[in-house]
Amino acid sequence: MPEISPPAAPPETKHSALDDAQGLAYGSFMAALSVVVLTHLGFVTGQTAGIALLISYATGWDWAWVFFVVNIPFYWVGWKRFGTTFVAKSLFAVTVTSALAAILPHYISFAELNPLLGAVMIGAFTGSGLIALFRHGASLGGIGIVGLYVQDATGFRAGWVQLIVDALIFALALLLLDPVAVGWSFLGALVANLTIAINHRRDRYIV
Q1: Listed residue (26, 36, 45) closest to 132, CA to CA
Q2: In the chain, count of helices (H) and strands (E)?
Q3: Residue 59: other Cβ atoms inside 10 A
Q4: Distance CA 155, CA 123 (A)
Q5: Can you give 29-71 as a three-state secondary structure string?
Q6: Which one of 10, 24, 175, 204 has the largest count of C-beta atoms within 10 Å of its C-beta?
Q7: Residues with Cβ < 8 Å from 25, sequence gap 6 or more?
Q8: CA–CA distance from 144 to each of 113, 140, 151, 167 (Å)?
Q9: At what angle do helices 115-135 and 179-199 cross, to 10 degrees?
Q10: 61-85, pLDDT tens digit by residue?
Q11: CA–CA separation, 76 and 13 (whole Å)
């Protein structure tokens, strides 16, 4: 799933605890829904969600557990870079997303789903879900955090770190998945990134 760097300025308004709970719940639900479509179609995505998908496809392990475990090492980096509140909210979002991704397939099934429509759905679900999480000070993936850490330490741009990791994920996906599925996956990632780029204001919300 795509990441985004934090804004330089603090938010203009402070969310209440109820606002945060609603935003985190919505973002986690939409992210989990996108994973249901991803795994149904056999697609892949970027960031830690994509790493978890590749591990899941290669081993048969449940994505929800893999995703939860893959994110654990990044919490320390997130705590060092953004503080306790960010880590707590991100841990909550990752936990809820993992749980819903395990539960939702028991309630949702697709007799037929066109891959083009599926890719657009994945991008829309992912983009809107991540925007909600960003607005309420949380994240679902650790790669963006590591990118910022590398940028602080070396000056190498965080965006390039994320791009390199995503390129490696999609390159590895070509070894495990049908190239056509990887192509559709790229479309889904493009829709998600465009959704975030057009609708997310970095100068207004904390990631």
Answers
A1: 26
A2: 8, 0
A3: 9
A4: 30
A5: HHHHHHHHHHHHHCCCCCHHHHHHHHHHHHHCCCHHHHHHHHH
A6: 24
A7: 96
A8: 31, 10, 10, 14
A9: 40
A10: 999 999 999 998 888 888 877 888 8
A11: 27
Distance of CA 130 to the CA centre of its chain: 7
Element (H, E) at 75: helix 63-82
pLDDT tens-digit series, residues 112-123: 899 999 999 999
Residue recorded with tokens 């892949």: 44
Backbone angles phi, psi at 43, to 5 degrees: -90, 175
Chain-centroid distance, C-alpha 51: 11
> What distance in Å separates the CA atoms of residue 171 and residue 31, rounded to the nearest whole number?
23
Residue 112 identity: E
- Which amino acid is residue 51, in one-letter code? I
Q: Which two tokens stand for residue 40?
A: 């149904």
The label of the residue with tokens 């007799």 reads 111
